[in-house]
Design a protein that fits this description.
Blueprint lengths: L11 E4 L7 H7 L5 E4 L5 H11 L3 E5 L8 H13 L4 E6 L1 H14 L3 E5 L10 E6 L2 E6 L7 E4 L9 H19 L6 H23 L4 H20 L4 H13 L3 H16 L4 H12 L8 H11 L16 H10 L10 H13 L9
Parallel strand pairs: 1-8, 2-3, 2-4, 4-5, 5-8
Antiparallel strand pairs: 6-7
C-alpha cells in the first residue's frame, strides 16, 4: 500500500430534508447571537426567509454575492459585518455566496454557517478565492472553513434543472481530480468515487423529475463527499484552467467546470490510469469497461442538456492563446507535465464542444 497522510477537517453537518428547521439551534451551538445572512441578488427572498426564521438573532441581509468574489465586494461585506456587530455569518446559496462568507472570515475570524442551495461543495473546504485586477487568487486557510453546514434538499428545489446539472458536474470535478492528486490517500479516494457515483445517479433523475426530493438528497450527499475531497487534497490542471477562465475571462463557474472537465481528464488519461478506471466505474456503471472517464463525463453533460462548448458561454476564440499562457505561467501540480501546445489544443476542443480526445499530444 502507498504511504499517505490523511488530515481530517473538523466541521458539523446537519443532513436531511427539512433540516433548516434546526437553524436557530445551530446558530446557538456556535455561541452566536447576531447573524448576518449572505445571499446573491437572485436569492434575496430566500435570504430574507432564512433571516425571518431567526427573528431578532438576524441583524441583516447582504444580497450582493457574485461569482469569483471581487475583493472590493469582500471588503464592503466585512465592513458591514463589523458595523452590525455580527458574530456569525449564514451563507445561503452556492459557491459564490459561500465564497463571500469565507472572504469575511479570512480577516475577521467570523464563524460561517453554510446552507448550500447548489452542489458546488465549497462549504466543505478551507479554500478561498478573491479576484482583483482581472486575476483570481486562491489560497487555503482553516479560518474560512464553515463551522456548520445544513444540507436540506428542500433548499435545492428552486435550483433550475440546467444549473443542477452543471453544479453537480462541478462537484464531480473536485472528486475526479482528488483521485489523481499528488497527496491522494485511500480514505479520500473512497469518498471521491462514492461522491461521483451518487451525483451521476442523481442528475438524470433530477432532469426527469425536478421535484424529486430523494434525487436532490442524493445529489447533496454526493456534493458533500466531493466537497470534502476538494478540501482535503490538492487539485490539478482542471481547476487551474477553470480558475483562469473564470477569473480572467469572467465565465460562469459551474458551466466552465462542466465543459472543461472531460478535456482535462483526456489530457491526464495516460498519466493516471487507476484514477480514470475509478471515475469511469462511478460514472458509467456497467459500461465502465467500454466508455472512458472523459467520454462518460462528456456524455453525462451532453445527454442532460448542459452546454458543452466554451463558445456557448461567452468565451472568445481570440482569447484562447492568452488563457493557455496564463494557465501555463503558474501551473498547479499535475500528473502529466503542463505543455503549452497540448493545453492550447485542449482549450480549442473545449471551445468547439468536440468530444474529448484521449492522449492529446
Amino acid at each position: 500500500m502507498l504511504d499517505f497522510v490523511y488530515q481530517a477537517r473538523a466541521g458539523r453537518v446537519v443532513f436531511g430534508p427539512g433540516s433548516l428547521q434546526h437553524l436557530e439551534r445551530e446558530v446557538l451551538q456556535l455561541g452566536a447571537q447576531r447573524a448576518l445572512v449572505l445571499c446573491s441578488p437572485e436569492q434575496r427572498a430566500t435570504g430574507e426567509a432564512v433571516a425571518a426564521r431567526l427573528g431578532s438573532r438576524a441583524v441583516g441581509v447582504f444580497d450582493r454575492a457574485t461569482m469569483h468574489v471581487p475583493v472590493e465586494l469582500a471588503r464592503e461585506a466585512q465592513e458591514l459585518a463589523r458595523n452590525l456587530q455580527a458574530d456569525c455569518a449564514i451563507a445561503v446559496g452556492g459557491g459564490s455566496t459561500v465564497g463571500l462568507g469565507k472572504a469575511i472570515a479570512l480577516d475577521s475570524g467570523l464563524p460561517i454557517l453554510a446552507v448550500p442551495t447548489t452542489y458546488a461543495g465549497s462549504e466543505m473546504t478551507p479554500i478561498f478565492g478573491l479576484t482583483e485586477g482581472g486575476l483570481k487568487r486562491t489560497g487555503t486557510d482553516l479560518r474560512v472553513l464553515p463551522k456548520t453546514v445544513i444540507y436540506d434538499a428542500n433548499m435545492t428545489l428552486t435550483l433550475p434543472v440546467g444549473l443542477s446539472v452543471t453544479s453537480g458536474i462541478n462537484a464531480i470535478a473536485h472528486a475526479a481530480e482528488g483521485l489523481y492528486s499528488r497527496d491522494q490517500n485511500p480514505v479520500i479516494s473512497l469518498m471521491a468515487e462514492e461522491g461521483i457515483a451518487a451525483l451521476a445517479r442523481a442528475l438524470p433523475l433530477i432532469v426527469r423529475a425536478p421535484g424529486d426530493v430523494e434525487a436532490r438528497s442524493q445529489a447533496l450527499y454526493g456534493a458533500w463527499l466531493c466537497g470534502t475531497v476538494l478540501g482535503s487534497v490538492g487539485m490539478a490542471l482542471h481547476h487551474k484552467l477553470c480558475h483562469t477562465l473564470g477569473g480572467s475571462f469572467n465565465l460562469p463557474h459551474a458551466q466552465t467546470h462542466t465543459i472543461v472537465l472531460p478535456h482535462a481528464l483526456a489530457y491526464n488519461a495516460r498519466s493516471a490510469p487507476e484514477a480514470m478506471r475509478r471515475i469511469s466505474r462511478a460514472v458509467n456503471g456497467d459500461r465502465a469497461g467500454e466508455v472512458s472517464a472523459a467520454l462518460g463525463i462528456y456524455e453525462l453533460a451532453r445527454d442532460n442538456g448542459a452546454a458543452i462548448a466554451l463558445k456557448d458561454i461567452g468565451m472568445k476564440e481570440a482569447d484562447l492563446d492568452r488563457a493557455a499562457e496564463i494557465a501555463c505561467a503558474n501551473p498547479y501540480w499535475n500528473p502529466r507535465p503542463i505543455e503549452l501546445g497540448p493545453l492550447r489544443a485542449l482549450l480549442q476542443d473545449a471551445f468547439e464542444g468536440a468530444p474529448p480526445r484521449e492522449h492529446l499530444s
